[in-house]
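Every protein is a chain of amino acids, and every chain bends into a shape of its own. The protein below has been through that process, and both of its lines are reproduced in full.
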Amino acid sequence: MHRFLGAVGGVVAAGAALAVGYLVADLTGGPWPVDAVGVQVIDWAPGPVKDWAVRTLGTADRPLLRVGICSALVIVAAVAGLIGARGRRRTAVGIAGGLGLVGLVFAVFSRSSAGNLVDRLLPATVTLAVAVAAMWLVVRSPRKARRAATAQPAGFDRRRFLLTVSALAATGVVSAGATKVVGGSGNELRARVRVPRPTQAAGPLRASVDVPGISPFTTPNSKFYRVDTLLQVPRIDPRDWELRVHGLVDKELRISFDQLLERRLVERDITLTCVSNEVGGPYVGNARWIGVPIADVLREAGVRDGADAVKSTSVDGLTIGTPLAALTDGRDAIFAVAMNGEPLPFEHGFPVRMVVPGLYGYVSATKWIVDFEVTRFQDFSAYWTDRGWSVEAPIKTSARIDVPKGFATVKAGPAIAAGVAWAQHRGIRKVEVRVDNGPWQPARLAPVDGPDTWRQWTFRWDATPGTHKLTVRATDATGEIQTDRPAPPRPNGSSGLHNTVVMVE
């Protein structure tokens, strides 16, 4: 029985250490050791595994990875507690210390590390200390018990053990509760930022159609897709943020957040698409952004001859390579500071991120940006291109059916299909729908907002009883028709035609 209790004690010790470490990470902004390990797991994972996780798990991949890592730690801690209960106390404490040391190493060297060295070290150091101390308290052998007075093995005091475990469990619960209390403090960072008034405001929204189930023209911030490689979202104080512009430039620039807001600001509606988006997938959204034109900053820095790329770096060290031409050809590429009328959400890059129309996010949409180096593609490789994705990735023309959903049941008679189509920086000229193997028929398009946003479309058809397949395709403003050739997202975006099957009765 005492061995079972030892295993339970090991689990409680690990839980207390993780809870206290999470509280310290939340207070300091440093990486929680679990997240530091998780980011390294993401970086080490083969490309196909990443693709599967995004495709199958969506935004649930991060919490599931956290659960997986914590579960593995709990199992090892249980084994350590069991070993300690069998009298090998130093081994048990050594296992706890080894786990804590792994977290400490990853906190220092993994890409999750942001902020100063103290902030990076503190959560992992505290976790290590609590793990070692808690395991020692659990597995130590009190000398008060006597064989004649108890049925337990000599040296095991169940009452003292239960008191120790209860105290550790209480420590974990209190730490978790305290984290919830102080966890909202990060919102104060956004509250300090007032949405700036743009020098050039966008016009009124007149491009939306009202069909139940269709994607709204403007995607709410809470519904906007998020695909990145971090488990712990950075919380950067705008007062500490600075953008360094350097490399093949005549003059290096260092721009604070306040200085950025003093520059010319434009407001634009821009649709973003993730390269991981499958045909008909959810990783696309449209928002109204406010930001500083990147071309203005490059013009001030003075780009030298021979440069053809920009390497931008996030606060976590992730790098993205963007063609210089896409930042200087007149499109509305911006350092965004606001999204849909409010400061950027933490998950979408607060306080500053890049938004570049017409390019997939992995070559343009750097969130939490802190470094902007003008360079040449031949002189560097970026995070995603190191993992098998194309260096340049213009967004492909695509259309999606939102209504009706797949395998929905509709009534016979007049019916409506609706959805969205996009070809950022080119625009959408036409959308067509085919019922079963019939001819392509034109859909009705919502008014044009601009070449950088998606367009909603509707299609009315006569639904006859039976099972039918609806297929959609788009034509961009250059006259290029969306290809029907299927391709996976890797290496430069999916292609093919989206279809849905419906039952009519």
